[in-house]
Design a protein that fits this description.
This protein has a single domain, classed as Rossmann fold, CATH 3.40.50. The longest helix has 16 residues, at 74-89. It has helices spanning 3-14, 43-57, 74-89, 133-145, 169-177, 187-194, 207-220, and strands spanning 18-24, 30-35, 66-69, 94-98, 111-113, 122-126, 150-158, 180-186, 198-199, 202-203. It is an alpha/beta fold. The chain contains 7 helices and 10 strands.
Length: 225
């Protein structure tokens, strides 16, 4: 695990984006942990989050030239990542995001920011992948708007969890769209980083909670390469 990944996991806990307990997910499963990207709601939080996305993006080769954020959650992620890439890594990239609906006046384009052209490579940034459906829709839509391919997707947390039909949503997305998915952190790395660790004077992941997470992984998890 790289240093920025360990820092990212601690950051999630500190701002309340990653919590442990008992949570009923949209799938109906009762999970011992919950990731909520809605907590990135301050200048400090989105600034730090942009740095963590940028830290993951710089690992990608060949390096993307445009950061794309699907509306709506992906918009601040794309902007923050592009800013951090320039400020913290000296890498100039463009960014863009899509509109849900075309404007009837003024700038009527469906993309805001740089419209990627020939020779560009796009990386999509988003919070999580649940079943991959929204990512497929976004990529297919981009194909009609730009000749530049989406080569990679960066998400915040990979739960390493099967869909209700038993598939690995990340592997399926990579296979169907021919791209690579990268996570800033996985749930296994969360376990590795937080077990027995004190944050702000409190052990976040004690042995009992850790065992519940591992049991959940055993029941619903996919194999990590």
């Amino acid at each position: 695990m790289k240093e920025y990944q360990s820092e990212f996991i601690s950051f999630l806990v500190k701002i309340g984006a990653l919590k442990f307990g008992e949570f009923t997910l949209k799938s109906g499963r009762v999970s011992p942990y919950f990731f909520n990207s809605a907590t990135f709601d301050s200048g400090h939080a989105i600034d730090r989050l942009g740095f963590f996305y940028a830290s993951q993006i710089v690992q990608i080769e060949p390096r993307p030239t445009v950061v794309f954020g699907p509306a709506y959650k992906g918009i601040p992620l794309a902007v923050a990542a592009a800013i951090s890439l320039k400020r913290d890594f000296g890498i100039e990239v463009a960014y863009c995001f899509d509109r849900k609906e075309a404007k009837a006046h003024g700038d009527r384009g469906l993309l805001v920011g740089r419209t990627p052209g020939e020779g560009d490579r796009m990386v999509m940034v988003d919070d999580v992948i649940t079943d991959g459906g929204t990512k497929v829709e976004a990529v297919e839509r981009l194909k009609t708007l730009s000749p530049a391919p989406v080569t990679d997707v960066v998400i915040a947390l990979n739960r390493l969890e099967k869909t209700l039909d038993g598939d690995d949503p990340v592997a399926r997305l990579e296979k169907n769209l021919g791209l690579r998915v990268h996570a800033i952190a996985t749930i296994d790395q969360v376990l590795e980083s937080l077990e027995g660790k004190e944050i702000d004077g409190k052990v976040v992941l004690d042995s009992e909670t850790s065992n519940r997470v591992r049991s959940y992984r055993k029941d619903y998890g996919v194999d990590e390469d």
